[in-house]
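Data availability excerpt. The first of two example chains:
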Amino acid sequence: MTWELLLWLLALGALLALLVQLVRLVRADGDLTLLWAEWQGRRPEWELTDMVVWVTGASSGIGEELAYQLSKLGVSLVLSARRVDELERVKRRCLENGNLKGKDILVLPLDLTNRSTHEAATKMALEEFGKIDILINNGGRSQRSLFVDTSLDVYKEIMELNYLGTVSLTKCVLPHMIERKQGKIVTVNSIMGIGSAPLATGYSASKHALQGFFNGLRTELTDYPGIVISNICPGPVQSNIVKNAFTEDITKRMDVIGDQSYKMATSRCARLILVTMANDLKEVWISDQPYLLIAYLWQYMPTWAWWLAGKVGKRRIENFKSGLDADSSYMIALKKKYK
């Protein structure tokens, strides 16, 4: 075999490998590292059993679904949110459909914005189970309002809840993990923590803040390789996130919710988060197309991402000003076109 033929074969192999990755990306609902871990990596059923997992924002959406899936793995659960009645509902369903008994689930009401209570809540969780293996920072709210119309009180509340509340609870739990030299801190961030979009300036800012904080914290914990920091960046997921979103005024609720069927199923998102935890992945992107592709554009081709954000963002604002749901009708059409 001549050197020239060998070089041609190597080039052809590289081209085929690239084409395979492109096909995988088109069909993907998570970044390629995450999907490889799901296929060839460690299984949550093997890695997460007998652990104590604290889930914030556990009364609905991703947090609720995580509780259900974790309850089938034989973990002990600490469920936190502000609404006690909803937490009790989630606990009952965990007991009905999971592999847990009543003593395995602690309902621990928690307001992330009331930071003075976080130390006591952490002590209660430790007194109940003796340890905290995994903290899942999932609590938070989104936003649907234009910056020029929005009170600064809204931005203050978003940062208090999404950012400072999460940082505060992490600060309470981390010393316990450092003492044990092991643990996992999993933060449900957002694709909006990578890029941005109109009508969510405050939400995006809070998610960028979380991204920067936990990436920095990871570098401070290099002496504790058993402590894993994982940033989860989901795209649109079926939940009450739009219904509960901040508007231009603290007291105003969302008027138009719209069709949420185009979003990823909550169960699929939760499963991929469990895969992330089982494989100690540092950052993952979880989203259907075309949102996943947009995340790759933000990361590797930001100029193209800015151009696309301008096109999509203009339509988003037009829908919002017309009293329509900002996303659903346009995104459903875009997703069908993409397929």
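And the second chain:
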Amino acid sequence: MTMTSYALSSSSFCRNSRIPAISSSSLSRIPHLNVSNKLTLSPPQFLNAGVRLRGLSVPGKFPSVRALRVKCEKEDTIKGETEDEAERFARRESTMPDRFRHLTKEAPDTPVRWPWFIALAFLVYAWRAVLFELSNWRNAVFAIVRFLGDLSKFALALVFHFIGDPITSLIALVETAIYSVRAFYSGIVAYTPVRELTTVILLASSVLAIGEAVAPNSISKQPYVVTLAGLVGYAAVQGYISEPFFWTVLVGMYGYSRLVKKRDDVTSALPSAAVLAGVGEPWVRVVGIAGYLALAMYHNSTKKSSSEEEEGQIVRKAPPVPLLAAALAIGVRLAAKWAGYRHLTWMIV
């Protein structure tokens, strides 16, 4: 192996080795220096340095130690301050190499846990105090609520002491009305006679049509009387009123329209004839329709032109309330029946 393979520059040699001042007395103690001032280096790194530094002296000869020391001091003078600052910055004001710094880290201390037990004791005591205070507040709130409840009971008893009977009667009346409406609706849904109501609507409509043809606006002039006649007919069918009272009411309605309101015979007899045609016995229906038809024909043959002009006034026309209620009952019954069939079909499928 040649000497050039172990080449080492003078600068790297000065960085990696600090050469102290060597006196002549010390040279005699170094075994690698002979008397002819030639440096014989046995280790490879010193041989490399000698080969690379042969330009500093005579070719083929090694420089003296003093010359090498002078050159290193010059280089250190130029780069000393910069390298020292860089090393201090890198080492953070520490002279220990980086590869040994992890050894200087302080070992973590064993965590101290006994103060936590003291804090836990204080926390438990504080929590028990909080619970005790909350229980006191809860008892106070319950006491206030009980007091307000007793006070409201006393006020209600005082009110009922003076006006208790009217309030009780009113509550009973409202309850009875609610249950009556519910029972009435249930009866309509479950027991509405569709065929009979259809017959009633047809016969009453025929009588009303005869009256409107002979005396225009005879229904619109007396809507309340027509509605009362329908209610009386329903009460008679349900048995709420007796038959003599029923006939008396019909005669009274005719007299009210003829004598008080000064209406003609056809208009006055229209509500009574429509009720008889709708809810009467078969022979009563025939007699009622026939008699009213004859009265209408007689009135049409004897009425004057002046009366025709008076009757020609435009009045808002609306279907009679009894017929509208009967049609609504039929519709509710059919809708409930259809919904029941649909529900059963869904359950079966």
